[in-house]
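Revision sheet: structure tokens.
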Amino acid sequence: MPTNDLRQLAGRLVMIRLFGTALDADTADFIRANRIRGACLFRQNMTDAAQLTRFTSDLKDAMGEHALIALDQEGGAVVRALWVPPPPSAMALGAAGDEPLARGVGAAVARAIRALGFNWNFAPVLDLNNNPRNPVIAERSFGADPTRATALALAWMAGSDSEGVACCVKHFPGHGDTHVDSHRDLPTVDKPLPELERFEFAPFRTAAPHAPAVMTAHIVYPALDADNPATMSRAILHDLLRTQWHYDGVIITDGMDMHAIAHRYDAGDAAVNALRAGADMVMAIGSRDTQERTIAAIAAAIEDGRLPLADVHARLARLDRLARVHPAGAVQYATEDADRALMADAWRRALTARGNPQRPAPGSKVRLVARQDVVSDGVSEAGVPASAIAAMLQSLFDVDLVTFADAETFDWHALPDDGRFTILASTSRRRYGAHARATWTPDLHLALWNPYQALDVAAPALMTYGFAPPALDAVRSWLAGDIEATGQCPVPGF
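Predicted:
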């Protein structure tokens, strides 16, 4: 087979990352020359609806009718298009505990992103978060109970599918019980197989007949394969998922630029290993050089038979089917106002109290303590600024704002002893350390991101599972006495 034909076969098995907010001529030529049909867009690719719709339209023109244009629009802190109705996190929906609500949210998310030209959403998360120290999942999980979390995820997926957007459940076979972020290093989940089957695997096994796509985890599971992360493990992708569970949807890798893979393997070798293990598409979201090397390595593996041609065509057929059932291309968005109202209701119903929190009296003097920085961690969007929380509180109280740079050096006892009702607002995913746990004593803790932070501070807490504007609106409504906190935290310890 000619080299160009081999590269074009390889290119159709690759999803790329793009740079900038428009499709430049050089990238369009690269896409057409290699017949690349998959792209994942991130926050830096987006400015507003008009720009993004032009971008996805140009991508579809370059990629052709079987284009797969994807993003991570999970909800909560992991969203990319920030101007559309902000969906609650999975754990917020777990706290609300309402399957029709979860279905409605999944449908609303799909309507918003399909209107922007996307046909593939890397959501929902099926990881069961039973590890309070998990640095990357936390509120992205529906909860810790396999049956309940799976039911909510399936409802969310059904909503998305009803609006024409393919879901992709992740991170198979389970990232919930890790204390390492695979963006930073290679985690291991070292549990006996019966325990994995009873817990981590359960949501994925139940969802397999319904999921259009599954995303792999860059995690080693020694009970199944002590040598390879799941992304490159034939025992996990082929033997377990394809053969034992009879899964016939698309398998896509997580980003191969993540440190768990990129710091241990050559990009081309990793891509070939993942495809030979059973993946259908490799997410080569590194630089152009990485993408070129990935395509060249896959083409070489097809040519020398390590990736048999029949298997390649089977992969292409699954990808074609996904795109055919969920075509790319923007459609009219006629339900934005209704979707905003739905999302706001979901955020309100998620609001969860811990330890009998008390409201300050209307008009009373309040001191707000919050972090100075709200930077993104590379997975989630940046948190809410302390000034925004202060502005919300100022509509109800006389507010004094105090910010800190480092929780482990901030001296709580240096705050004035002037009778102000003190509110701590937690605006990052990071858990608090020993210093804060031992010395911080707010009257009320607003856990506006990671609910596990409510376990770190000896104070009554109000948990939102996210920091989007409607989450802050829900907090304000509670503080004003207009609503109660009716959510139930869906993980142990609360």
